[in-house]
Amino acid sequence: MYLLLFLAAVVTSLQTVICMDDNFLDTNYPHKLSSSCFRIKGIPVAKLSCQSNSLIKVKKGFYGIPRVNKNNTCAYEYHAKEWKSHCVQQAQMHQNCNGERTCAMHVSNPFLSRCLDYAWYMQVNYTCIPENNVYDICQSRSGQVQQGFIRSPNYPYRNYTSDQDCQCKLTAAKGVIKIKLLDFAIHDDGSKGKTCASDWLDAGGQRCGFYKPEQIPKMIETDSNQAIIKFHSDSHQSAKGFWLEFSASHGHQVSMICKSMKKTPVASVSNLIVEPPEEPIIVSATQVLPPLETNDNGGEHEDGDIDTGKISATDKHNENLAGSSEDNTTEDYVDKVQIITGVVVGCLILIAVIIVIVLVFRR
What we know:
By secondary structure, this protein is an alpha+beta fold. Helix content is 20%, strand content 31%. The strands form five sheets. Strands 9, 11, 13, 16, 17 and 19 form a six-stranded mixed β-sheet that branches. Strands 10-20-12-18-14-15 form a six-stranded antiparallel β-sheet, with no helix packed on it. Strands 1-8-3-4 form a four-stranded antiparallel β-sheet, with helices on one face.
């Protein structure tokens, strides 16, 4: 009998510990929790929030039942003396709050097979990550951190931008690089019968598709102190994107360099289009010069000379035409000045009349 009770206590403790995340004990960032009680009126909501310069990183979500009811307990306190008296079971979170500053999740109380009862509460353990430790894979930036995060452009509020080729190079001082996916939604249209033909993330192998929180790989451990994370998107559809965490074994520092690999096209000499010169316009002499005049004898002037008297008369005629054109321009200008002057004088007279009328009515 005592042996059975002892085994039951051990199993209960194991159930509780299994549902806890060992990483939650990490002291790099402040620990927070959000708990929602099912024994209240209305729809239970778990609310998560961080400061304006921090982002949410969900550690674990789970349901719980206090074996000893004390004031309708609706939270699981890890350091409480009665922590072993709670029966907890891991929750499948259909909403991912990672990367957001505030988040609200509607929850329900399922039947817990381990506890043989319906859940009393749901709890989410999370931390708040400084935004400075989160790197956009497509922005040129470098740094050195012990634990960092990489996300796709616009994550998590908008889909990532199209037509991108970006990468982050990670180098650990010692040990090996460890990568953990926190959220993952990469579009794949399955074109050409090939998986990940349109968009993909290369982090320990090419990946694409839409992962539920429980489907995301827990850890990707490389066998080197260096790792290159690559991201590609085509010019068509996009999706929410990704958010991942990286660190080095034994807490060593990791230096990183992120940048866009998309090159700006430069025009080469062979692509330059050189316009051929326009052909010269050839005008014959007969199109410019007047016909040669003949003398009184009916013949041309000797030695091909042109009658200067005739040409002088022509020049005078042209001068008269130019003079008349200038006179017409001057007359037009004078007419415009007279019209403007008349309008101005008329306006002044109208203003004077209005002033006189106003003065008369005031008296």
